[in-house]
Amino acid sequence: MINLETIQAAHDRVRAHIHRTPVLTNQTINHLSGASIYFKPENLQKIGAFKARGGLNAVLQLAEQERYYGRALGPITTHSSGNHAQAVAFAARQVGVKAYIVMPRTAPQVKKEAVIGYGAEVIECEPTLEAREAGVQEVIERTGAVLIHPFDDDRVIAGQATASKELIEDTESEGPLDVIMAPVGGGGLLSGTALATHFLSPHTRVIAGEPQGAADAVLSFQSGKVEKAPYIKTIADGLMTSLSERTLGYIREHVTGILTVSDAEIVAAMRLVWERMKIIIEPSSAVPLAALFKNKEQFAGQKIGMILTGGNVDLGKLPF
C-alpha cells in the first residue's frame, strides 16, 4: 500500500527529471465560476503531461532495483493512447533502455510522433483495451520487456501523487484547499491525488470529473466493482480507459464524488482556458473545470485546486 513515505520517496526520485509546475490563477474564470481556483498546469510538464511523474517513478525505481541485484535494466513496454506512452518513452531514454509502446491506431498523431521522438518503437493496435493488452503481451513474449502499466501500478500512482503534493505545498499560504479536482480515466492520477490529499491535507475533499462518453468510473464508484462504460464516445481521448481493482479501491476510500460532463461542456471549458489563460490544454484536462461549471452551486465561494493534466493537442483537429 502507498503511504506518505512512498509519495515522498517518489518525489525525491523524480524531482531532478521534472518541472515543478507553477500554480496559476485567473480572475475572469474565478468570477465566472464563483470559486477561487488554483490551477496546477501539468501541460507545462516534461512531455506536456503529468504522466511524466508516474512513468519516471516506475522506471527509475525499477532501475534502482535492478542495480541492487547487480543487473542491467532491460527493455520496457506499455500500452497507452498517448501521454503515458510519452512518459515511458521519455523515462526509458533517461535511463538508456529500449521502450516498446503499444498505441491505438486512433491515438492523436502528435502523441505518436512524440513517442517516436523519444526513441521508442510504436506498435499500433485497434482502439480496444483487449487489443492493447494483447499487443503488450506479444511484445513481452518477443523481447522480454517489463510492463509499466499506465495506472494499475503503485509506482505509477505514487509518481502521479507528486502533482497534488506540490499543489498542496504551494498553496499553503492561502490556507487549506476545500477541494482538489482531477479528471479520471484509469484512475492513476485520481488515486495519487486522493492519497496525497489524504496524507497532506485530510480536510480537503477530492472530486473527479469524467466524460459522459466514457462514464465507467462513476458507475464503479457507486457499485463498488469495476464497471464498463455504457458506451465510449468522447473528445477526451485520454480518459477512455476503465478503472482497475487497485485504483477503484483507492478511489472508493478517499474520493468524495465523481461528476460527469458532456463533450460540449468539455470543449467550452477547454476554449475558456485557451482564451483567458493563454495556455494550451487538451480536452481531458478541461473535464474538471467543465464539472465545476456544471455544478457551480456545489463549489461556490470555495478554494479549489485543479490539475490541468496535459496539453498534447493535435493542432490540426481542434474542436473550435
TrEMBL record:
InterPro entries: TrpB-like_PALP, TrpB-like_PALP_sf. It comes from the Bacteria. Its cofactor is pyridoxal 5'-phosphate. Keywords: Pyridoxal phosphate. The keyword Flavoprotein does not apply. Residues 15-310 form the Tryptophan synthase beta chain-like PALP domain. This is Threonine/serine dehydratase. The lineage of its organism: Bacteria, Pseudomonadati, Bacteroidota, Cytophagia, Cytophagales.
